[in-house]
Write a structure and sequence with these properties.
The protein is α/β, with parallel strands linked by helices and about 220 residues long. About 30% of the residues lie in helices and about 20% in strands. The protein is built from eight helices and eight strands, in the order E-H-E-H-E-H-E-H-E-E-H-H-E-H-E-H. An eight-stranded parallel barrel has the order 1-2-3-4-5-6-7-8, surrounded by four helices. Strand 2, helix 2 and strand 3 form a beta-alpha-beta unit. The longest helix has 11 residues. The protein is globular.
Amino acid sequence: MQFDLMASMMCANYGNLEKEVRDLDEGGIDSFHIDIMDGRYVSNFAMSLNDMRYIAGATEKPLDVHLMIEHPNNRIGLFLENLRKGDTVYIHPEAEYHPSTTLLSIINAGMIPGIAVNPGTSVETVMEMLRIVKKVLVMSVNPGNAGQMYLPYVGKKITKLLSMKEDMDFEIYWDGACSADKILEFAPKGVRGFVLGTTLLFGKGRPYGETLQAIRELRF
């Protein structure tokens, strides 16, 4: 069964970021998930433009940039000029007055447009944007911090999105509290990728390659 695994780099060891990127790359990670937080849209500060720029230059693997910032259109150029064609940029629709304008900037720059959908955001409120984007990042926890508990009602939202994805031509990705049982349940249903943080990947005391191989060998 084919599914993508993305490393949540806010959970990495910043004492040696070069080694973290290299070990994940060699271990078989599919892409690097970059959480940018401004302390306003969410209460936390996380990765910076410089972190993103460094990782973009340290790997040929794609980047998934998750902008948890207010009014991303005001600063979208700073991010786009430091990414490569084919990288993904997610915005939160609630954070922008006219999110379709920001998504168009992402498309025009040759990036893959995506939206991140919070647990409290209904599918109905983002319906029009589902025809614009190529990726939908479903938050199974409230955004802003690692190590949170899964909110079970999100599963019904994913089921609804799965019923629409073929007609509207987008893929679904999981972000937050991603455990093996969630991959076992939702990958066969059609969720394309999973962001891995402290639940499965980081801080486990084993090589990343071993962990990633074990995830790919889960028995469905």
